[in-house]
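Field guide to reading this record: the first block holds the primary sequence, the second block holds the structure written as discrete tokens, and the final block holds curator observations. Each block starts with its own label. This record concerns Single-stranded DNA-binding protein, catalogued under organism Nakamurella leprariae.

BLOCK 1 — SEQUENCE
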Amino acid sequence: MRTDAASVTIVGRAANQPALHGAGPSERVQFRVISTERRYDPGSGTWTDGDEYAVQVTCWRSLAGGVISTVRKGDPVVVLGRIVSRRYEKNGEPAWFTEVKADAVGLDVARLGGRMRRTDEQLRATDSMDSGAAGTGTGSGGPDADLRGVPVGDPPQDDDGPQPA
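BLOCK 2 — STRUCTURE
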């Protein structure tokens, strides 16, 4: 992550389905993230929604491929990146557009629910790796057998492609 920019971490939900934009070196994936503050009300003993913040997230290169194949509308996500604002004119008046240029996007597995599960084939491969030379593997009946969650589908490619301008 760059250190000469305003770094942010946003925990929220994907507000729309990630979409591919541009072509060639300017190819990118964009989606919106909505983060809602939760506050505890001691009077009622309940949690209530507070302020909301929504921002467009832009992903480049291999991150774009991973996001387009993994993130779906409504998924809980954690976004790390750099917040940037651009000035433009609309009807002769100055206006501002703010976005996050993502360095990392992950699914928040604590809030994801049951969508991410390993297939039987993935579990067998993991179990065989877990039971390596030391024989300390947990196997499929171990205490963490239900906690193994990974994205379904092919992993993103490592081809970073050209750097955006």
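BLOCK 3 — OBSERVATIONS
The CA atoms of residues 23 and 29 lie 11 Å apart.
The chain has a mean pLDDT of 79.
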